[in-house]
Structures are given as C-alpha cells and as structure tokens.
Amino acid sequence: MKILINISVIGKNHRGMGVFAKQIVKELLLNNSNEYLFVSGNNIDDEIYEIISLSRHKFIQFNSPLPIFEQVIIPLLIIKHKPDICWFPSNTFPLLKITKVKYIATICDLIFLKDEIRPTLIYQRIGRLYRAINIRYGICNLDVITSISRTVINEIYEVFKINKEISMQHILYVAQEFKDIADPIILNKLRLVNKKYIYTIAGTAPHKNLIFLINSFLKLCKVNDEYTLVVSGAVNSEYSNKYPNILFTPFISEEEKTSLIENAELFVFPSLMEGFGIPLIEGLYYNPNILVSDIEIFREIGKDYVRYFDPYNENFLIEYLENKSRININHQEAKEYVLNNFNSKKTAKKLEEVFNEFK
Asked: What are the tens digits of pLDDT across the range 280-291?
C-alpha cells in the first residue's frame, strides 16, 4: 500500500505530538511492507530527515502556514500521488475528502474545545480556532479515529456522539526513547550542583497550570526556603527573572533534560488537562519522586506508580514534603512498567494493523 503521512509536527525543537509522531515514523521505516510518502509544511527534525533520506521512501516539503498546507497543498499531493491511505498524527487534517483515499487521524486531545481553557497569546488563539473548526466540520470524513489514550478516545466518542465500540487497536500510546544518557554539565550551567530543586516541564498555555505551580512554590518558600523551582518549556513566561529562587531554563537537549529529571528532589507535572503527558512517563523512568495532578488521564497512565495532588490546592507542596516519608514506590518496577507499556514498537504495530484493515 502507498501511505501518505503528514510529518509537519516533527519540526525543529518539537515537543508532545512531535515526539509521538517521530517514534512511530522511525518504527514504520523499519518495515518495508508499505510505500510511504512523507510530507511537511516546514523544516523537520534533522534525525528523522536523515533516516527518511537514507530509505527508499519519498519526502516532499512545501513551506507554508499549517492551514494552507493541510487544506490546499495536501489534497493536491493526494490527487497527484494517489495514496491508498493518509495518516494525520496531530489533531488536524484536510477537510476535503478525496474519493477512495482512506483518512486516519490521531486526535491527541480536545483541549481546544474547552470553554474554560482560553489561551492568552494570539498564535495560541488562532491555533485553537483552527483545530476546533477542523474537527467539528471534518470528523465525519475520517475513516478511522485513533488517539493516544483511552481517556481521550472516550471523550471524542462522547462529544461527537459516535455510537460504536472502541477498539484497543485505535489507542496509540505515546512512546519515548530512554537512553540513560544524561548531560550533568547542565547542572553546572544552571548552578544547581549540590542544590535541592523541584523540576517541572510546563508550557505557558492555561491548561499547563504553571501559574498555580509558581504560587504553590512561593507558599512553600515561606515555610521552607531551601528549594529552587526549575521550569523547562516556558522560556517566554512573564515570571522569568521575577523571583530569585525560580529558574526558567533555555531550550535544552534530551540529555540535559534527563539530567535535570534524575537529579531533582521532586518532579512535578501540574496540568489541568492533557491528552497524554509525555513528561509523566519520563519522570516515571528517571526519578522515583513524581508528583502529578489528580486528573483522569494521569490516573490512566501513572496508575499507582506516582503520587497525586489536587491541582487547585496551592498547599500541595507543603503537604507532600511533610508526608513524603510515609510513601514508598518501587522505582525499578515503575521503570519496567514504562518500558513494557509505552513502547514504540507496540504502538507502531497497532498503527500498521489499522493500515492493514484497508488491504
């Protein structure tokens, strides 16, 4: 079969959905049973570009804004190259359905439909509006809906009143590479050597709940000032350089991130909503002290291997540190759980089985 895959999400300095798509694409390229046509509306990750270049598969790039690329250029590429199947791995897809071509999309979350989550930045608002319009008017054109968790696919079926049974083949858990290669130099750069610090990976979007975490940390400082809060993923936060004991990192490598997670006294993930939450499995693998907000998706992914807190209770850090000694989690068991359940080979195999439904 000929399969077109939009890999625009695997851009430079990609996160979240880009990590998800990259791991699956790498696995798909190890199997030569299909012919792949990879397309992108922007420059892509160097590693994935090199892997595709060395393969027998094609890559086509047209630099353009995402809506134009998805709604104009991709349909033209479909008409020209005549794939049997198209896979769109990051929430959005062409509204124009080309006859006889099967559309498969991975909807990673429905946060963009939540009225209570309203982004403040203009580009975030535009992206939210585009995703909302896309799924409301285009979901009827999808031959298969996949998602990255049971929590999200349940929500999709409920919101859009899809009356059929959910297949486990359509739940494509995010996988992550765990290389056990850390770069401790980052600790020197950030002056964290021999310091106690709490680490988080959080963006500036409202659902990431970063302001709540900062306020919680400031409360902790009033009773215990020996900790520093280190934040990655929010370079342009309004809180940058505002407090001496809150440190926002620049963009960091995977190896630097690994070192920051491993050496943290506590890794915190405070989101109010997520489709999956890659930092959760990264934290599970690299650090025995993980504290995440008590939301349905984190219960699905973290099970009993992490500790949970109320994401509206700003005293949660104080309460956790007071009761830390009472909680014991087997870190080796948690690592094995992550490796067994969030495995790129398993996820790619599921997707290939979805492709094979149309043979």
From this structure: 999 999 998 999
